[in-house]
Amino acid sequence: MREVHTPTGPAQVQIDEPEGNIRAVLAIGHGAGGGVDAPDILAVRTAALAAGVRVVRITQPYRVAGRRTPAPAGQLDTAWLAVLENLAAETGTVPLIVGGRSSGARVACRTAAAAGAVGVVALAFPVHPPGRPEKSRLPEIDAVEVPVFVVSGERDPFGVTPEAPGREVLVLPGAVHDLRKGVNTIGAALVGWLARHGWAA
């Protein structure tokens, strides 16, 4: 684990290397009050490593500082992009995929173009606040112009992301926002998506 300076304070970065040649880099962020050891993030890490993808788990500065309440969206995006820029020197020309769970998925979607990402992995993308379907966040994921892989829980109170052109959605039966129910099915689906786009060994 190492610290990376950002305009909003130090972020933490954990890098896991695959065996053999690196086919892509997946940078993944956490949910609003959680960390990068959430079960769905770990499932993605394990599967991506086996497919030849370097996995970079990024902890936002507010969480490093011990706060559970997320920073404003603009600060989250700024810190995220600062970390990705710091990593770019060692990534070289390897394709970059960005992702996250919940709040982190929103950050990845909002910054995908600025980061030069070739794809997005969105775990439990929060379509709307619970009980507030009129406050849709779908424009954030609809705006992504590269392939997107989404995992949604069938019973997630934050909503289920709909299928769309360029967007593959895995719905876990009976799962809620934490995606624990059916988490063991995420890896194979992710690797299939990576392989279809040439990002898997």
From TrEMBL:
Give residue ranges for domain KANL3/Tex30 alpha/beta hydrolase-like.
Answer: 24-163
The record's annotation in Gene3D superfamilies points to: alpha/beta hydrolase (3.40.50.1820)
Q: Give UniProt keywords alphabetically.
A: Hydrolase
InterPro entries assigned: AB_hydrolase_fold, KANL3/Tex30_Abhydrolase, NSL3/Tex30
UniProt keyword Hydrolase, yes or no: yes
GO MF annotation list: hydrolase activity
Report what the protein is called.
Alpha/beta hydrolase
Q: What is the scientific name of the source organism?
A: Virgisporangium ochraceum
